[in-house]
């Protein structure tokens, strides 16, 4: 009998899995179901589209004929409402049912709305899909004033969009630094200066108590808990993701702020795998469960899941050091691994736009942030993969030019 593979989600995780399954199982039935109206596109690039820098065309990665050529049944605009893991079936909002032998969950997340009055007003935007990017671009093109909330990697995209679209913006941050869990004062200062250069004013120890609206229900201001009021015709909110798990409500699949999977992307329920942003996966480098919201990681998890779904065993293992870069400013920025974890760190500043920080756990590098000079990234990543204890050699690691040969040999440590 022909094996049947059903993949929910056509983001980079689901799509990579579909490609791998097709390569490894040429005769199988493969179905990809997505509630979006378009096939896989480059989610990383949609911010450039919203900035007005890129036309729509390069965003698309797969046209529908990509699926036709591979005999993959792509279902657009189709929302999966329920899964029965005993019967091995998947139900959609239109009442259609799919049988599966192996199922992949690759449904990612949905941006969280601020839990304050008027947070759903016209002009307040969240950012995840190409459709969101079109709406943001349209609004930002006409707005003169803006507010950005969420001092992390997606919030700064909103800030950059305001800068590029000539929207004079205030960036309301909770603490005293942008991305305070990964950057110190010295590192964050470089980002704050770059924001100012883009006509975006950071406002520290701040937040939103409520939004005000005009008579038409359109956002007109953000009011902070201290009562400060910032006029805005445009607001961008990026305070995190809720994983799309509603479809699992009738299953026994283990959840822990995400779908728990082992290093082979297998969930706690037989024949069900998960990949991408929504997983809490066993990280074989950290030797503990971890999460990662990045394109490269989601792509690799999808491929590993696809391979293992077909192999029907624990063949391929996910072992990965992720990267996430920001290209909004005159200097490069890269975070790698798990920069917000760890029990120790080292950092160094080399100039007004060059800074780096490395996080250690149990003496081993687990992640870091590089600003201005990305040259050491491959060396730090190598040390992460080797799980080498190096925290006692911070002086070598923080030299402007890192030379791994200057580290004490592993055996002498
Ligand atoms: C604006 C923006 C900028 C980013 N920039 C970077 C960057 O520079 N570098 C980087 O590494 N990462 C970046 N990311 C993060 C990266 O895009 C994600 O980590 C990655 O796309 C996750 O892929 P995924 O396949 O796990 O999930 P998603 O891409 O979220 O795909 C999940 C899909 O499943 C669909 N779905 C959900 N529920 C259902 C359901 N019940 N039925 C059917 N379909 C469903 C969703 O609509 C979606 O299409 C960025 C993200 C955004 C939004």
TrEMBL record:
The keyword Flavoprotein applies. It holds the Pfam family Pyr_redox_2. Residues 4-283 form the FAD/NAD(P)-binding domain. Keywords: FAD, Flavoprotein. The keyword Manganese does not apply. One of its GO terms (molecular function) is oxidoreductase activity. InterPro entries: FAD-bd_OxRdtase, FAD/NAD-bd_sf, FAD/NAD-binding_dom, FAD/NAD-linked_Rdtase_dimer_sf, Rubredoxin_C. Its cofactor is FAD. Residues 334-387 form the NADH-rubredoxin oxidoreductase C-terminal domain. This is NADH oxidase. It comes from Halococcus morrhuae DSM 1307.
């Amino acid at each position: 009998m022909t094996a049947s593979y059903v993949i929910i989600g056509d983001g980079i995780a689901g799509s990579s899995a579909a490609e791998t399954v097709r390569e490894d199982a040429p005769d199988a039935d493969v179905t990809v179901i997505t509630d979006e109206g378009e096939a896989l596109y480059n989610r990383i690039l949609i911010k450039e589209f919203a900035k007005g820098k890129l036309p729509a065309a390069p965003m698309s990665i797969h046209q529908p004929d990509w699926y036709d050529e591979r005999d993959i049944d792509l279902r657009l605009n189709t929302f999966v409402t329920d899964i029965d893991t005993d019967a091995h079936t998947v139900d959609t909002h239109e009442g259609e049912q799919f049988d599966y032998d192996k199922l992949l969950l690759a449904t990612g997340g949905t941006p969280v709305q601020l839990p304050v009055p008027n947070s759903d007003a016209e002009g307040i935007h969240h950012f995840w899909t190409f459709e969101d990017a079109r709406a943001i671009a349209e609004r930002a093109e006409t707005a003169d004033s803006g507010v950005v909330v969420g001092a992390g990697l997606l919030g700064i995209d909103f800030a950059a969009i305001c800068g590029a679209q000539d929207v004079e913006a205030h960036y309301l941050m909770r603490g005293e630094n942008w991305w305070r869990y990964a950057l110190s004062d010295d590192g964050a200062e470089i980002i704050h200066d770059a924001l100012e250069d883009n006509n975006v004013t950071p406002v520290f120890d701040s937040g939103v108590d409520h939004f005000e609206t005009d008579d038409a229900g359109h956002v007109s201001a953000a009011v902070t808990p201290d009562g400060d009021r910032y006029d805005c015709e445009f607001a961008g909110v990026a305070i995190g993701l809720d994983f799309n798990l509603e479809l699992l409500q009738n299953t026994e699949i283990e959840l822990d702020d995400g779908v728990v999977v082992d290093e082979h992307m297998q969930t706690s329920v037989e024949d069900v795998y998960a990949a991408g942003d929504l997983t809490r996966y066993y990280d074989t480098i950290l030797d503990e469960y971890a999460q990662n919201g990045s394109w490269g990681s989601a792509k690799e998890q999808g491929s590993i899941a696809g391979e293992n779904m077909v192999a029907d065993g624990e063949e391929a293992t996910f072992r990965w050091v992720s990267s996430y870069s920001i290209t909004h400013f005159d200097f490069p920025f890269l975070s790698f691994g798990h920069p917000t974890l760890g029990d120790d760190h080292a950092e160094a500043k080399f100039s007004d736009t060059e800074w780096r920080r490395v996080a250690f756990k149990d003496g081993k590098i687990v992640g870091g942030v590089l600003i201005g000079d990305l040259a050491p990234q491959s060396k730090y990543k190598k040390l992460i993969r080797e799980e080498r204890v190096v925290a006692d050699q911070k002086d070598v690691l923080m030299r402007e030019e890192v030379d791994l040969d200057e580290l004490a040999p592993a055996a002498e440590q």
